[in-house]
Amino acid sequence: MAGQGRVVILGAGESGVGAAKLAQLKGFDVFVSDFGIITDKYKAALEKLNISFESERHTEDLILNAIEVIKSPGIPSTAPIIKKLTAKGIPVISEIEFAKRYTDAKMICITGSNGKSTTSLLTYHILRNAGLNVGLAGNIGQSFAAQVASENYDYYVLEISSFMLDDMFDFKADIAVLLNITPDHLDRYDHKLENYAASKMRIIKNQTADDIFIYCADDEETLKALEKVKPLAKTYPFSILKKVDQGAYLEENQIHIHTELNNELTMSILTDLALQGKHNIYNSMASGIVAKRLELKNETIRESMGNFKNIEHRLEHVAKISGIDFINDSKATNVNSTWYALESVNTDIVLIMGGVDKGNDYDMLKDLVQSKVKAIVCLGKDNKRIHDAFEDDVDIIVNTFSADEAAQIAFHLAKRGDTVLLSPACASFDLFKNYEDRGNQFKAAVREL
Predict the structure, then answer these.
(1) Taking every annotated instance into account, which residue ranges of this chain make up the domain Mur ligase C-terminal (predicted)?
(2) Binding-site residues for ATP, please?
């Protein structure tokens, strides 16, 4: 679809502005519309490119005349403007779908309810250290479309959310990774886990026998979904519970990664991996299989796995004060992420949690809370559901309404050898701009103790 016709971009965030930049470069007449307020940074970027845009509204006359619409992943298909576009038969696609048309780079696409940011960053880190010409995009970092417009990478590691998958049609992953499927964002999927699972399985859409699909053989929902959708690609499972023929498995604290292409890679989970905790064994296995399939050297993979630094706000060690460890896991915005965090800490815990509850089911946390958590500090405007869920499991549940207050009270409740863990299991929008703001305020509060 070269250089003619009008393309409208809905949403002027990182992905929208990147898509606008690429569409303009390819000769389209581009218009950007955002129903919210466009930040100064993105306004300036659009003005610099001389791309017309509107903020805080969707003017139908300027949108319904597009030959194609690229929408932000955050806009649901039920939004009035999307329904009108669909009724008129105007194609609505994602930034990822659009940008892929203009690059021949190999696509390594990583999805899952939890761990996708860490796994994407780790995979990118290994590939870059091995000397590959690789970009990182999708749900993380700089817009994919903006990079396609200005860079010339041979590979992309893309972190892909279910919302992005919903708007992908012809796009194909050369290597697809599905880490896990657990309840998240169910408000977008008629509150049905099978709808959300079907969305995640779109990661293997359009794959052929020449492509690769890597998945967790221990994840119940993934196995259920695979009964309905049969991958055409070559499959590599990973497991910490059983041996697999080709893929990755855990035996006596050693990860074994084996593909038909080359010699086996073994790594000790105790001494070779920078990332600790059971969930990170899975993340490391997934990244390791990608690296082995790209025929990278074992020494390179092992070295990268050992010197990797994790993402900010994901089990990030903040400080040790009076023998108490403070960990910022503000990115844990669902119950499953908090389960992983609790599972990875081996001391008594003072848990800071709360915020905007997305209809959470806290039952899965009960065993870990009973065995590890000595007190819960609620950080949010309405903490009733946390009290109801855990009042029989911990002796102390306290309400706080700022990061300062939460950090101070948690510090007083903890003793030498304990861990204060911010892992909210909830969205942050009641008291903070986003999870980054929540994490940054917590870190600042800890440093003031």
Answers:
(1) 313-426
(2) 112-118
